[in-house]
Amino acid sequence: MSNHHYDPTTDISPSAAYPEVSFQHHTDDAEFRTRVRKTTILLSVITIFELAIGLVIYTMHKGENPSHLLILMFKGAVCILTLAKAYYIVSVFMHLGDEIRNMIMTIVVPLLLFVWFIAAFLIDGNSYRNLRNTYDPHFRETTTVKEANHAEEPAPKSGKE
Amino acid sequence: MMWYFLMSDAFTFGAFLISYGTIRFSQNFWPDPNVVFNAFPGAGHQNLPLAFVSVMTFILIISSVTMVLAVHAGHNGDKKGVIKWLFWTIIGGLAFLSCQAWEWHHLITGEHATLIDGKIELVGQTTRVNPWGTLVHGAEVTDALKNSSQETLAALVAEHNHTATHEQLMGMSKEQLLGMINTAELHVRTKGPVAFGGYFYGITGFHGFHVFSGVIINIIMLIMAQKGVFERRGHYLMIEKAGLYWHFVDLVWVFVFLCFYLI
Question: Given CB atoms, is A84 within the 8 Å cutoff of chain B?
């Protein structure tokens, strides 16, 4: 830090001796403000997009014969938008983008474990369902959504539900 | 060090959300979030999917922005700025917690007609039972209504008919009550997957606890800044760390929002 001089006579805490924040702060107020404003607007716009997609999925569920592939694609789009949001929060608000490269790597590389973590456990859950549907008829009959019911579903009322 | 703590916390939350995903993938049916979260304070029974949770999301994003401004004020050694923005961040955190308290209260006490063991019962969402199964129609509903208790029938009539008192309804015969229930207006569902309630309360509760501790940390930072502790120390690094924690809480909410409310 440019304006930070370590003086052991006034402060012996480790954080004062070795500041964890390793980046050079931009003291330019105008630049900082536009950056924060831009990110805020970006995050809000992404959130509004996500909500819009959420409502689209909702109306698709309500309609007859919703296309499952299309719904899955919309859900995938929401996931990607969420990752974009996470990226902006971490890199701009949390300033990780301004840290030195090695520091970023010590954080990001362990997080790659999530790729395996998510894939392995979702596949596991899916395989458990398939096994039960194959070998446990009771489970299959009691939990499967009956498609026939959808056709005779009464028109949605504005009441509760 | 803060970063490594946050990374470990990310794995904790990640494990929770992934186990939620595993259970969800192992079920043939999972509740539609738009059916579960469609209420708004003061809007009664109106169907407003996603409305309230978007308010909560924006509250958290805005409080993250005020935290950025507090950290920035700290860099410039601007004590007044730090106090002002920290104050608004705390307000945002408290607003979020209040919203969550309302939502939990609504989910636990908001009772819905549910088909359980051949009869209709009114249940809210708990960790043991929840009313978010598939819709039941026609003869199944009328049969179940005949088996239901007087109490349940009276409550179902009272939802639409506000003229009769509870005592009057309880005094009527079951046939009279059945005649007063409009089965077309009635939305009956089966029981939802048991795990839904536990995961919802567990994960949003754990996140809410993080928000709560974040608010406490921010209040401590506010008092320290007020007393001039950071001024004497010559730097506002503590605010920076509190800020990292606060942004992390916002970050986690982004994923909780995704997993529970959007997909």
Answer: no
Q: Which of residues 37-66 of A touch B (CB under 8 A)?
A: 40, 43-44, 47, 50-51, 53-55, 57-58, 61
pLDDT in tens, chain B (263 residues): 788 999 999 999 999 999 999 999 999 889 888 888 888 887 777 788 888 999 999 999 999 999 999 999 998 888 999 999 999 999 999 999 999 999 999 999 988 889 888 888 888 999 889 998 888 887 888 888 888 888 888 888 887 777 777 788 888 888 888 888 877 778 889 888 999 999 999 999 999 999 999 999 999 999 999 999 998 988 888 999 999 999 999 999 999 999 999 88
The CA-based dihedral angle spanning residues A126, A128, A129, A132, taken in that order and rounded to the nearest 10 degrees: 160
Cα angle A110-B205-B243, degrees, rounded to a multiple of 5: 55
**Which of B61, B69, B248 lies closest to A47 in CB terms?**
B61
Q: Do B22 and A85 touch (CB under 8 A)?
A: no
A97 to chain B, any CB pair closer than 8 A? The answer is no
